[in-house]
Design brief:
The chain is an alpha+beta fold. The chain folds into two domains: 171 residues, Serine Protease, Human Cytomegalovirus Protease, Chain A, CATH 3.20.16; 57 residues, no CATH class. The chain has five helices and ten strands. The longest helix has 33 residues. The two termini are 41 Å apart. The relative contact order is 0.14.
């Protein structure tokens, strides 16, 4: 462990701790992509949250009890992945943090569960001052809006952009986070949570995701295809394979024939006559 890391941690302790006394792990707190609630943080919001979450405590299920405190953030960083884009076409960015725990008999099982990937998903609690509709630009906090999150208007997904962050309260281990990419990571420099380690593996994942989008199109058109792109973002390779099989089974059942994937140049027409293309 680098000396600078211990120095950062000991800013929050009453006495200086040694490396052997501490357990350190990395976690993605949130990102700038559209989440399961059809909301997303702006890039400026991530920067503000990076400041506000310094020193914040980690608990369970957002239960504000001192007995549930288990970790504390001692460093934060905004990291971007230029090879990845958000639902709305922006560069993917995430807020990462380093957290520490003191090794004790009481939290030995928790540390083992974190290492085993059982305790992984996290969610944050903060105060948002502005929720901007992606369709009309209305601030829902002040005037309300007729557009419904998760629905499409003229082919554009409706979601809320979260900004004007004024406070950050805590981060929690949860079972199902709103943000599919939020959770403990294997290393601090790895913003992607797919677990792929080579260009070949990453290419196989991208192709599999394209196949799933195409199959979803056959079951429900462009709306279904766009929806599955969002809902499958947190899935690993095995889960994606099972999802593809489910769509293939559904199509065979409804049509009585084996589903065939369209070549890229043969693009089906959407209901409005515009060409449907995979991204």
């Amino acid at each position: 462990m680098q000396k600078s890391v211990l120095e950062k941690i000991n800013r929050f302790t009453r006495r200086d701790f040694t490396e052997d006394e501490l357990y350190i792990f990395s976690v993605v707190l949130c990102d700038n992509d559209v989440d399961r609630d059809y909301e997303c943080f702006t890039d400026k919001s991530l920067e503000k949250l990076s400041e506000l979450f310094m020193g914040k405590t980690g608990i369970f299920d957002h239960n504000p009890s001192a007995s549930g405190q288990n970790a504390r953030i001692f460093d934060t960083e905004i990291e971007e992945d230029l090879s990845r884009v958000t639902v709305y076409g922006g560069v993917y960015r995430c807020l990462k943090a380093k957290a520490y725990m003191v090794r004790t008999d009481e939290n030995r099982d928790l540390i083992s569960e974190i290492d085993a990937g059982i305790k992984k998903e996290v969610s944050i609690s903060c105060r948002v001052g502005k929720r901007t509709c992606s369709i009309c630009g209305c601030d829902r906090e002040k005037t309300g809006c007729v557009h419904q999150k998760g629905k499409f208007y003229d082919g554009k997904l409706c979601y809320d952009m979260l900004s004007d962050i004024t406070d950050a309260y805590e981060w929690s281990f949860v079972a199902v986070p709103a943000q599919v990419n939020a959770g403990v990571t294997k290393k601090f420099s790895d913003c992607r949570t797919t677990g792929f380690t080579s260009d070949r593996d990453a290419g196989a994942e991208r192709e599999l995701r394209r196949e799933i989008k195409r199959l979803a199109y056959f079951t429900g058109g462009k709306t279904a295809s766009d929806a599955v792109e969002i809902s499958s973002r947190g899935m690993n390779f095995g889960e994606l394979v099972n999802l593809r099989k489910s769509y293939e089974k559904l199509i065979r059942k409804s049509s009585g024939v084996r589903a065939e994937l369209m070549p890229v140049e043969d693009k089906p027409e959407d209901s409005d006559g515009s060409a449907f293309s995979m991204k």
